[in-house]
Amino acid sequence: PTAHIGVTGLAVMGSNLARNFARHGHTVAVHNRTTARTKALVDEHGHEGAFVPAETAEEFVAALQKPRRIIVMVKAGEATDAVIDEFAPLLDEGDMIVDGGNAHFLDTRRREKALREKGIHFVGTGISGGEEGALNGPAIMPGGSVESYKALGPLLESIAAKAPDGSPCCTHIGPDAAGHFVKMVHNGIEYADMQLIAEAYDLLRRVAGHSPARIAEIFRSWNTGRLDSYLIEITAEVLAHTDAATGAPFVDIVADEAEQKGTGRWTVQSALDLGVPVSGIAEAVFARSVSGHRDLRRAASALPGPRREALSPAEAEEFAARVEAALYASKVVSYAQGWNMIGAASAEYGWDIDLGAVSAIWRGGCIIRAAFLDRIRAAFAADPQLPTLLADEDFADEVGTAQDAWRSVVSTAVAHGVPTPGFSAALAYYDALRADRLPAALTQGQRDFFGAHTYRRTDRAGSFHTLWSGDRDEEQTG
Ligand code: 2AM
């Protein structure tokens, strides 16, 4: 056998990944359920490197050097289980099945456990960067055993994106499903980033009265500062684009109903289970679903809103700077929440994830790649036990400086009737965390009143219950 690695599932992501390996000098066995795809890949791109096309699973496995490394790039869900069931009986102890799809991390846990019992390494691996990234360098987030990473790491690192400092955007995230979990949160953060950018655009358009072309320029200027990122860059491109058929700004001819494939929803569902507030991501997922409820929007379209004039040109200029601050502060909060979620899962599942390493590998290749991620890496380098990004001195300073602008943008949005659930939720979270006292004390009182759920006191240890329906004496219950 000659192949260093194999890829099965040769739709665009799988084909591009196989080509990426071949272009980096690895011999790649390629296989697909429908053999026409395998043939097409080798016909079109065979000259890019060494491919070993295989028609059957047996041929594919026989082409691989041991320990065998098989990357599965099929549709997440039943197809993944079907492929595992097909290949597992053909493999030997120590071989590796790498699932590069967007699997739910609980499926990955189940599959890893089942294959581990057969002596096979199952490596759930997050791969971010879309089709382009798969070909030219994605961010790669492998889970699975430390042993499997020894055999896979060098190959994966060779095809991964490189961060600005030259280091590969690939690291062993942690055991079993740690890689797929972290990829899921990456996508959740991506939802939040996109929502915050959308809110900034909406404010610049509807409150400041700027045209899409002018807003594109504003985003371009933001992209030279602390917001420098792939998403801000493509936002400017999309806003500057004109529809060829009508000559209208492209954003004005696109139906305003956002779709989703589900990783954002998974992030929020998992956050609820872990008890971690990720309000930024949740608002982003809900904002997409609000946009998609055409029936509700039509039914409510006659409801009154505030009567407000757009800002004067001078006010509009100043407003743009405040929106930048609000966007930045909200982004810091949403990343703080995302990192808390990764930390909570790491503790819950015993993954021991290096939180700084996660930010380091997101500096390149993936959709949320940004200069900003190097700041998060630095914050965890300074304090690996950092409880929240908001406690990092530099981030705290910046958010503190931004807060006046942030508050004024949220109040202006409310006054003008422009929804900013992302900015508002982020600000509410910031104010909740820094509050000396929260009204949760009252909530506890209510719970004790109607359900005898007991409460703790600020001045004494133990749990207490007040006899609400009797003489209102207090008894200690624990
Ligand atoms: P196909 O070309 O034979 O349809 C994306 O759909 C990729 O997943 C394709 O390569 C597709 O193979 C593969 N795929 C989908 N369902 C599959 C299954 N049950 N078994 C094997 N491959 C599957």
UniProtKB/TrEMBL annotation:
EC number(s) recorded for this UniProt protein: 1.1.1.44
What SUPFAM superfamilies does this protein's entry cite? 6-phosphogluconate dehydrogenase C-terminal domain-like, NAD(P)-binding Rossmann-fold domains
The UniProt catalytic activity note for this protein reads: 6-phospho-D-gluconate + NADP(+) = D-ribulose 5-phosphate + CO2 + NADPH
Report a single Gene Ontology molecular function. phosphogluconate dehydrogenase (decarboxylating) activity
What pathway is it annotated to?
Carbohydrate degradation; pentose phosphate pathway; D-ribulose 5-phosphate from D-glucose 6-phosphate (oxidative stage): step 3/3
The record's listing under Gene3D superfamilies reads: 6-Phosphogluconate Dehydrogenase, domain 3, N-(1-d-carboxylethyl)-l-norvaline Dehydrogenase, domain 2, NAD(P)-binding Rossmann-like Domain
* Pfam families named among the record's database cross-references: 6PGD, NAD_binding_2
Among SMART domains, the record links this protein to:
6PGD
Q: Where is the 6-phosphogluconate dehydrogenase C-terminal domain?
A: 179-469
| Signal peptide residue numbers | none
Keyword terms of this UniProt record:
Gluconate utilization, NADP, Oxidoreductase, Pentose shunt
Any idea what job this protein has? Catalyzes the oxidative decarboxylation of 6-phosphogluconate to ribulose 5-phosphate and CO(2), with concomitant reduction of NADP to NADPH.
Subunit comment for this entry?
Answer: Homodimer.
Q: Which family does it belong to?
A: Belongs to the 6-phosphogluconate dehydrogenase family.
- Provide the protein name: 6-phosphogluconate dehydrogenase, decarboxylating
Give the organism the record lists. Streptomyces gamaensis
